[in-house]
Amino acid sequence: MSVYIIAEAGVNHNGSLEIARKLIDVAKECGADAVKFQTFKAGESTGIRADKVAYQKNNEKTQESQFDMLKNLELSFDDFRRLKEYCTTKNIDFISTPDGAESLRCLVEMNVSKIKIGSTEVTNYPFLELIAKVGKPVILSTGMSTLGEVERAVDILMENGTQNIELMHCTTDYPTALCDVNLRAMLTLKNAFYLPVGYSDHTSGFEVAVASVALGASVIEKHITLDREMKGPDHKASMTPEEFAEYVRHIRNTEELLGDGRKRPTGREKIMMNQIRRSILAARKLKAGTVLTEDMICLKRPGTGIAPEFAAVLLGRRLKRDIEEEEAIMWEDV
Fold first, then answer.
1. pLDDT tens digit string along 25-65?
2. Is the dihedral of CA 103, 104, 109, 110 positive or negative?
3. Residue 17 contacts by C-beta under 8 Å, 6 or more apart in sequence?
């Protein structure tokens, strides 16, 4: 099954429906399977006195509060309905992360195919219960979480009606340093919960995506932007369209090179076999009637004759015809 690639548009639309549509266009052109947004009203998740977090301050040097920043990045629920319809016309999946009960209700009414739960909600048990009771498949990001916290979140989701869960390992830092990726934790999640796992990638390059796919990730998520110089908190940790297209190519190439796991010669190798494997040749000129002994044969290329593995079977047999030096001995010759 192909890795499911999510282009995380997030709030990189900057509160503009037009930019949001352009992000959908770009995600589709780059080969993503889905585009993901964040559906929220600023007051659902953030108090009016909440300060911006460190990466938001670094990426956007303004004095506004986190609440005011999010307020400026809101799209209306009607906008999200339009975006989902636009995704349908573009044949790309629409996914969104709700920030509260009102946003969740909007997504449910839109009949989204699955719900993405952000890392900030892993310990938000009342909200997890609400999401679980919706009965939609869930993708749960696990940044900032311990294994025990993830276990409790999974239990709550399952106890309240959600069995279809994918777990996303990630590090909640934008961008994430390679030393903080800890990709083996993705395997820890897989082995602990026997659920599909993936990686929500906040690093700057392609390496982690390739490694994630090689380790068995079923879903990869990456932020996308039209321009890293745009105003907004997440643009600097996002990929441009050109970079994202290359990112998708790296993932698809990794899938292809991993193959299906069956050890067997390829079609091209089968052609090569006759050229570079060895077969049984006459070590010298041999007359018809000769009984073959070990000193009469040699094992050399090409591989068009009897394979060396059958040398013991061939010895002791009588030749039916004259064989020239280094001519291949065939079964019909004995």
1. 999 999 999 999 999 887 777 755 665 565 555 656 566 66
2. positive
3. 75, 79, 82, 83
